[in-house]
Amino acid sequence: MAGYFKKMYHSISTVLTGLGITIKYGINPKTEVTQQYPEVKREPPEGFRGKLFVDINICTGCTACARICPVDAITLKTVRDENKKLRPVLFDIDNARCIYCGLCVEACPVDNCLYFEKKYEFSAYSKEDLISHFGLGEVKPAESKTEDKKTEAGKEGKEAAQ
Amino acid sequence: MTELINRILSGMSPTMPLTRLLITILIMVVSAAIVLAVSLLYEGFATYAERKVAGDIQARIGPNRVGPYGLLQFVADGVKLLLKEDIIPFYADRWLFIIAPYIVFTVSFAAFVPLSYSDHVSIANLNVGVLYMIAISSVVSMAILMGAWGSNNKWSLFGGMRAVAQIVSYEIPIVLSLLAAIIIPASLSMRDIIAYQSGGLGIFRWLVFNNPFTLIAFFVYFIAAIAEVNRTPFDIPEAESEIVAGYHTEYTGMRFAFFFMAEYGDMFVVSAIAATLFLGGWQIPFIGGIPMPVWLREVLQVGVFFTKVFLLIYVMMWIRWTLPRLRVDQLMELCWKYLTPIALFNLIGASVWVLLLHDRGVYDIIARVFTR
Amino acid sequence: MEPKKIYGILSEKFGGKIKQFVENTLPPSVLVETDAIADVCRFLKEGDGLDFTSLMCLSGVDLKEQGRMAVVYHLHSMKQKHKITIKVELDRNNPHVQTVEQVWPGANWYEREAYDLLGIVFDGHSDLRRILLPEDWEGHPLRKDYVYPKRYHTWDV
Amino acid sequence: MTNADEKFMQVNMGPQHPSTHGVLRLLVTTDGEVLSGVKPYIGYLHRALEKIAERVTYPQFSPFTDRLDYLASMNCNLAYAMTVEKLLNIEVPRRAQILRVIMAELNRISSHLIAFGSFSSDMGAFTPFLFGIREREFINDLFEIACGARLTYNYIRIGGVSKDIPGGFIEKTREFLDYFPAKIKEYNELLSYNAIFIKRLANIAVISPDDAFDYGITGPNLRASGIKWDLRREEPYLIYNELDFDIPVGKGEMGKTGDAWDRYMMRIYEMEQSAKIVRQCLDLLAPGDYTAKVSKVLKPPAGEVYVRAENPRGELGFYLISDGSTKPYRLKIRAPSFANLSIIPKLARGVMIADLVAIIGSLDIILPEIDR
């Protein structure tokens, strides 16, 4: 019988303790931590991995980024221009495929060439719209020798990258 | 309302039985429409309040997009539910499946009828008001089982079975604890019970303070009432982490909304019973004795009644967002091992109190000591 | 206990069934004859001072160049705090090995996984079904010569 | 579904069920509320990570480990990096080691916060989940400062970490560590010691030490059974042997040792210990290199290693075979949840449906890791 009442006391006291905590939050509006997203936007910190951006004018066309990409999100096509320099005519980054791992940014040998912007809102209505095109388009070629440096690696990665 | 009808009809010639009948029906329909409108509005705001309370407790804001402070959220929800596809499972028992939400909703709506909202505002002042409430709220369990069985879904069936077991069990402590209060005013009419609780600074004549037994009865009733309306920690019939959504797993759109609104309607009803029987109903605390115009008094009384009910509903929401859920057998254990015996002994205690001291409560005794 | 010593105990008990001790793996491994694996495992679990309480990992490996398949058992003792790798090598065309499910019940799922992905059949297993792939999947993807299907039911892959 | 024995009913719990923590399907055979057997079906999230590993280079696989146990990406990164380093014999600089410990332990806290939160919502209490998320946001912010991502960090790399922590990280972490203990106290008062919660969990699904060994259960679930086994102590990696922390073990405070409540409570205790470790590491942090010199193309010598690390959910093991090329020959991932889940058919016999939810939640499984 003593156990019966002890149990009852235990239940009631712990339930009341819990209720005490929740009411503290319930009546104090200062405890609210929600951010009103579309109105209030948080500033991403330095080094935030947002949308990839390529400064195409200083790109050397080395294809290091395309080779390291585990999910094959970067398509790169280079042409030698009249100075025998490799120029990227096609530089597509498929943002739908990108997993924001940052391997390409680290692989890029040129400072401030390939980097993450602080942009995190870039939804689109179709998958094609999610591909950002950075390529130079037509470059006056020295000789019509194009190289397609699409890597084999990570072909299966497509399915895994979400 | 009967009085109203009688008053109108008394001015008419007794030779027009058809007109009398029509007018009676008209008045009934109009008053039913008013109750329906008010209860729908209440249910809408209750869903908003539920979400807002949950938000407050969980350190977030809650609905704030539609209308000022998100107040029109329930309209948006309602429109959304109306536009949802109405799915009836192929293997469902169509008849049961379709009729169940209406029964649940009708029942919860019908329970608004005998409530006494103020001295003169009430739909029907039944002399068996409390009995009527208890009886009609039991029908819910049947309707839930109909819906659950009709869905032809195993999770629904689990929910339905749980709901019936739970509601039937918890009727007992509810009735026993209500009895402990009713024996003092010795009436089943809501109005009489409230009228009995006047005076005493407005609060000390409330039945909850009448004697220690009614105080216990109030808590027993309130706990059992939470179980009766299937809310956490007793929401096992729709425990979403266990049985998906319980009895309304297969319901969509407006049919689901009926179940949903009925839950809030039931919340109002059980809180209103608690307010009526234990917390003095529409009795205005402290300033009840001050003379004032009738219309002001009526408005104040309605306001006070709703305030009490909403406070109790707030407590229900507060409990819901705090506690984890009990298991089925533990729920039954709570009912049969704790609430029912306590309510039973409590009833005996209350009866002895009434037998010895008649209807004098603790306040009366203290007041008598001091006035002597 | 040192892995070398465990190897000593094992070869003393099972003789020729214990084929080889490979030290340059981590943890060092013992190569066991295929038909003795269940006995060896039971001994490893119940033997005095060995107490390999748990099977940490069971992996199938396709050794295509050698025309073999291997099943690798990473064992660990939480009582004695030592660990060892046990290996068996199977015929690649008809990989069969005894189950160790009776020794460590946890092996059940690992063996199903090895069966699913590599097609290694564990004799005596209580419930040898595919575990990760759909039951009607064809082939065993972790084999080195696995051909990717073009279609699965109505989907183009 | 046909069943020879009419007494039993077979129900599919999942793949879409609110409490199966992802896409786990359990074929449940029940007699009313009581389960007579459970058959788990997994693989709905199979992404063939082991096959992918054979097609990508060593550094390229690192982002995929994020997606193993996505609630503890840092720990998965760490285990993978350690595996490859073992193969390549890379010595990691001290600063990188300390940073790794800080990240791993912070991630352990954030993972346990989710475990705590999702378990509480399985048990029907929603508020603790939101509270857990709130604190986790704090840690996510820290990670975002450190590496720029909030969920899939890919921060710990072969040879060290991807970049040094920026200024302000240490202060912010200290701020979190000062703020956190009060919150743990709040969790305990709100949930851990709540009578209903204890009643739901005590003596449920007891895992005896022998069962735990047999099924290869590791991590908090093993320690809850009373076995003091933690890789951070038993096989110290990084700088764990210099740090002072306790390994909480289950003592059966509320029932038998190794019951669901013990398993739940291990996570609360471990959060406290992890906070303690992070505090010590912040004091130890001295300037230095954040990564060892690692060549761009990794070509480990042929060989095989099995390396494991203590993840929030148990021991994550990588069995890596290298054939001397730039790509792994075979990578087997020994996921802790895989082993932890395999005991469910044994535990879930003769318990109730609500208990099954408690068992899944208390084992704290995560499906991406199981299905790989």
Describe the structure.
The complex is a heterotetramer of chains A (162), B (372), C (157) and D (372). Chain A has 162 residues and is an alpha+beta fold. Chain A is 25% helix and 21% strand. Chain A folds into two domains: 1-34; 52-142, Alpha-Beta Plaits (2-Layer Sandwich). Chain A has four helices and six strands; from the N terminus they run H-E-H-E-E-H-E-E-E-H. The model of chain A is unreliable at 144-162 (pLDDT under 50). Chain B is 67% helix and 0% strand. Chain B is mainly α and 372 residues long. The mean pLDDT of chain B is 83. Chain C has helices at residues 3-14, 37-46, 107-118; strands at residues 18-22, 29-32, 54-63, 68-76, 83-91, 96-98, 121-123, 151-152, 155-156. Chain C starts with a helix and ends with a strand. In chain C, helix 3 links the parallel strand 6 and strand 7 (121-123). Chain C is an alpha/beta fold and 157 residues long. The interface between C and D is medium-sized, with 30 and 35 residues.
Helix content of chain D: 40-55%
Distance N terminus to C terminus of chain D?
Answer: 30 Å
Shape of chain A: elongated
Largest sheet of chain D: 3 strands, antiparallel
Unreliable residue runs of chain D: none
Number of strands of chain A: 6
Q: Using CB atoms under 8 Å apart, which protein chain pair has the greatest interface?
A: A-D, 37 and 40 residues
Order of helices and strands of chain A: HEHEEHEEEH
Strand content of chain A: 15-25%
